[in-house]
Amino acid sequence: MYCVQCEQTVRTPTGNGCSWAQGMCGKTAETSDLQDLLVTALQGLSAWAVKGREYGIIEPGIDSFVPRAFFSTLTNVNFDSDRIIGYAREAVALREALIARIQTQHSGASVIHPAGRLQLEDDMPSLLRQAGEYALNDDKHLTGDDVHGLRMLNLYGLKGAAAYMEHALVLGQSSPVIYAQFHGFMAWLGTHPTDIAALLENAMGIGQMNFAVMALLDSGETSLYGNPVPTQVNTRPIAGKSILISGHDLKDLQLLLAQTEGTGINIYTHGEMLPAHGYPELKKYPHLAGNYGSGWQNQQTEFARFPGPVVMTSNCIIDPGAGNYTDRIWTRSIVGWPGAKHLTGEDFAPVIAQALAMEGFRYSEIAHPITVGFGRQTLLDATDTLIDMVAAKQLRHIFLIGGCDGSRDERSYFTDMAREVPDDCMILTLACGKYRFNKLEFGTLAGLPRLMDVGQCNDAYGAIMLAVKLAEKLGCGVNDLPLTLVLSWFEQKAIVILLTLLSLGVNNIYTGPTAPAFLTDNLLQILNDKFGMRGISTVGADMAAILSH
Ligand code: FSO
Ligand code: SF4
Fold first, then answer.
1. Which ligand does the CA of 3 lie closest to?
2. Angle between helices 196-225 and 250-260 (to 10 degrees)
């Protein structure tokens, strides 16, 4: 086992990465190795998808399958070895069918790729032996740490982009141009590139591609559910039967809301589902009762206490056994946990039946509302106001404190940073890192809330477009704005958002709580020299540096 893709990975003086029987996230060596094999199978499939395009042969089923299956290998998504093997076998079957189709029309067509004709072993011991040949650090001793680190940067960035492609597709959005680029990057990475300049260039290419993906995702969300508007959300339970829904998939929430109408069941959002309350087509359901709990890392205690079923639509899932609720967590789509029930299709009847059979909340607690819903359009509508406030010296600086959360203590930096933001400055939040401080009181500035939540990590596009529009209206560059990004990272979606920001020329981003363990000091220096990207230090020092510009 070798996995170094998330912030909680093992770090030792002799080398970083989870490499024992089980990763820090609970992923077993077996699942991890099988995921490496799946990635290899997907790279081989993409190589043939690229070849097919040369002949005008495109298989929509392959285009949608590769990002979806790749998504299953992200942190805290799928811990079920059987499902991973299933995806790998499907990849091989799809590849063979594509090869047959291509060669029927062009008999000499071939692909020279290490995984171009990968065949999978039959039984688990043989599969695991085979998987060992595709360990991600296999040739690290030959290539050196810089090449390895850049390969991981590309691989993990591409995983993040794949996740957003799948999120967009669920909402009916895809692009043949993006699929072509995506397969190109997948196939290329499978050739084990060693050229540092090409690896850096392609990392930026993946970031740029992801910007287009995030635009698609934004249009999927807003075309189906409307533009988010500022909305008060109760964060305390009310008496009655209940279902909790977590993850990023708004479509699942909409299906669940429609199917529970009139049943008396209240629906609560959890984690990254919180921003859903701002969408007109979702908030119209009166039984979308509120938000329950906090960030994903607290789910084992929060789900254990929740008196109803829990639907996990995407990352981040952690061991439900620890909290004794395996029998009432339902996984969807690419999510998997061995022994947990996996719900396919669009019918939530079994979940609803379970909720009806449970007691639900016995009492209502005193309401504690927070406000969400400062999505792209609301922010863009506010640009003139923000510019006037800057001109009138009412607004000194905007801090975008975004990113994903984790369980390390160092993450209190982000709460402390939010608390220390001076009264004449604003805070924008994005993704699940906000749970550390979004229930604190920040007051208002010239009638606007000082803390405005832009949404899920999926909604980073809205924050980027605000920066672009502000810069356009002020006639300056994005880096000249009184705006600083302070990003917490945890998993691969954050990696690709960072690549997107860097590829757009956004400089001087503060990142933490630690640097990705796959990046060497040398690579971090390159990112610092090229983009001014720096690790967080202390709140006091960073705040002083930010406000001195
Ligand atoms: Fe968080 Fe998990 Fe959205 Fe991530 S819930 S950590 S970056 O998967 O996806 O922000
Ligand atoms: Fe370790 Fe993170 Fe990989 Fe889990 S996802 S095995 S914690 S590096």
1. 2
2. 20
Distance set, CA 138 to CA 7, 142, 500, 521 (Å): 21, 9, 28, 21
Å from CA of 232 to ligand 2 middle:
36
315, 456, 511: which to mutate for ligand 1, most atoms within 8 A of CB? 315
Residue among 166, 186, 168, 268 nearest 224 (CA): 168
Nearest CA to ligand 1 atom 6: 404
Percent of the chain with pLDDT over 90: 96
CB 308 near ligand 2, within 6 Å: no
- Write out the E strands in 177-251: 231-234, 242-246
What's the 28 CA to ligand 2 centre distance in angstroms?
10
Asked if residue 335 lies in contact with residue 77, where contact means CB atoms within 8 angstroms, the answer is yes
- Residue with the nearest Cα to atom 2 of ligand 2? 6
Burial 444-476 (b: 16+ CB within 10 A, else e): ebeebbbbbbbbbbbbbbbbbbbbebbbeebee
DSSP state letters, 178-193: HHHHHHHHHHHHTT--
The per-residue pLDDT for 436 is 86
Give residue 412's pLDDT band: very low, low, confident or very high (50, 70, 90).
confident
Query: In 72-195, which residue ranges form alpha helices assigned H by DSSP?
Result: 81-105, 124-131, 140-143, 145-170, 176-189
Report pLDDT digits (tens) over 269-290.
999 999 999 999 999 999 999 9
Measured from the CB, is residue 6 less than 6 Å from ligand 2? Answer: yes
Please determine, for residue 112, whether its predicted confidence score (pLDDT) is greater than 80: yes
Which residues, other chains included, contact 35 with Cβ-Cβ below 8 Å and sequence gap of 6+? 3, 72, 73, 84
Pair of tokens at residue 352 = 């609803």
Judged by DSSP in three states, 18 sits in strand
**Nearest to residue 271, comparing CAs of 244, 251, 289?**
244
Q: What pLDDT is stored for residue 445 in this prediction?
A: 95
CA distance 534 to 311: 37
The single-letter code of the amino acid at 346 is E
Tell me how far apart the alpha carbons of residues 182 and 194 are, in angstroms, rounded to a whole number.
Answer: 19
What ipTM describes this predicted complex?
0.96
φ/ψ (deg, to 5) at 425: -125, 160
Degrees, nearest 5: CA angle 299-303-305: 125
The one-character DSSP state at 532 is -
Question: Tokens standing for 145?
Answer: 């740490």
Q: How far is the CA of 376 from the centre of ligand 1 (A)?
A: 19
Q: Which atom of ligand 1 is nearest to the CA of 296?
A: 5
Q: Is the CB of 22 under 6 A from ligand 2?
A: no
**346 token code pair:** 């669009």
